[in-house]
Design a protein that fits this description.
globular, three-stranded antiparallel beta sheet, 16 helices, single chain
Length: 404
């Protein structure tokens, strides 16, 4: 990959007897989780320029989607941000359902909301656990991963898988919540509260943690907006933008929850954003469980939803309906639409174009962490080499999402 034109500009070292050193970090560096390459210019240990290379995990997500039917896209969306696959599923389903102009059953909207927030918590636990480990707080990482496992157990109980869930369908979801979901999530939240309390005690007065995070990677809200940042990265700068509040979808407008914001826009604020957002997700889930209505989890339109298995195996009509939907796909009306949800890293948007056939004509995804990687240069210039690890960790770059 070619370096930017500014790379040819000569930079004078602060010490006249020293020289600016060029160094490459990555793409497989033990301190960076994910395949990413940093081209660095260093004045001693201070970073004077940084060019970030992404794309090592590019697998043509959008073109793969355009080769299959609309339904066959869902497994590909699992692999975007694999720490929160349910949100990816919901985002893509809502975009296509907007073209189909269908209204989902109320229970389906509640269930999708609940599982999206469970996924948000698992994502934040992963991000914060790894970020803590990178500054030496390995105990916190083990605590958070233990709590994450409890929630992954819930995801597995609902979808049948822990990461590659492929749980949403056009017009609904594949599985309803299990009968004992209320008890299981109450137990998981009890453990989560205990873990978060312990982690707060371990970190909030930890001198090493605060020195490594506070005042590092600062970005103003003007710069954050100009780079197109969303999610915790933007909210850490003090901008209260959240898709769930700005453009409510599913049933988010029925729940009482807050959008935490920071002040300085540094790594410490970013860490706190994700930490507090887990409590807000818990609030949303508890309200949704209290108001969860009875009813179907999917629409019944045979042009969109597969027939039940007993109809497929026992009637020619059911068999033919199943055959046509699988082989030809759901016929989505011609048109184009952009639909966004609040992903764990920010605004996760899908732009889809239909030509009226059973396959997408065009699929485009807005991966939120891609914009964070673009802004990393701005956050790192003037900082020291060890700050790369902590700042990159708080971007929460997921290769599957960033590189697509």
């Amino acid at each position: 990959m070619a370096l930017p034109a500014r790379w040819q500009q000569k930079i004078e070292a602060s010490d006249p007897i020293e020289e600016i050193m060029e160094m490459q970090m990555g793409p497989s560096h033990p301190a960076s989780h994910g395949t990413i390459k940093f081209n660095l210019k260093l004045d001693g240990e201070r970073i004077v320029d940084c060019d970030v290379e992404v794309g090592y995990l590019h697998r043509a997500f959008e073109k793969m989607c355009e080769q299959g039917t609309w339904t066959q896209c869902f497994p590909y969306t699992d692999r975007l941000n694999y720490a929160s696959p349910c949100i990816n599923n919901v985002g893509f389903a809502l975009a296509v359902e907007k073209l189909l102009n269908i209204e989902l059953p109320e229970r389906c909207q509640f269930v999708r909301t609940i599982m999206s927030e469970v996924s948000r918590i698992t994502d934040h636990l992963t991000c914060l656990g790894m970020a803590s480990s990178e500054v030496g707080a390995t105990t916190v990482a083990f605590y958070m991963l233990e709590a994450r496992e409890l929630l992954y157990d819930l995801v597995e109980a609902v979808t049948g898988a822990r990461l590659t869930v492929t749980w949403c369908r056009l017009g609904g979801v594949s599985h309803d919540l299990p009968a004992d979901f209320n008890e299981r999530i109450a137990h998981a939240f009890e453990m989560l509260d205990s873990v978060l309390s312990d982690c707060d005690k371990l970190l909030s007065r930890n001198r090493v943690f605060i020195d490594r995070m506070s005042g590092i990677g600062i970005m103003s809200h003007e710069d954050a907006i100009s780079y197109g940042l969303t999610g915790p990265l933007l909210r850490a700068t003090g901008v209260s933008y959240d898709v769930r509040k700005a453009y409510p979808y599913l049933v988010y407008d029925r729940f009482d929850f807050e959008v935490p914001t920071g002040e300085k826009g540094d790594n410490y604020d970013r860490f706190n954003m994700r930490f507090h957002e887990m409590y807000q997700s818990k609030r949303i889930i508890e309200q949704a469980m209290a108001a969860l209505p009875q009813g179907p989890i999917s629409i019944t339109d045979p042009r969109i939803v597969l027939p039940p298995k007993h109809q497929v195996y026992n009637s020619i009509e059911g068999l033919m309906n199943h055959f046509k939907l699988i082989m030809e796909g759901v016929k989505v009306p011609p048109g184009d639409v952009y639909c966004a949800v609040e992903g764990a890293n920010g605004e996760l948007g899908f732009y889809v174009v239909s030509d009226g056939s059973g396959r997408p004509y065009r699929v485009r995804v807005r991966p939120p962490c891609f914009f964070g990687m673009a802004a990393l240069n701005k956050m790192l210039i003037g900082r020291m080499i060890p700050d790369i690890v902590t700042t990159f960790g708080m971007i929460n770059m997921i290769g599957g999402e960033c590189d697509r």
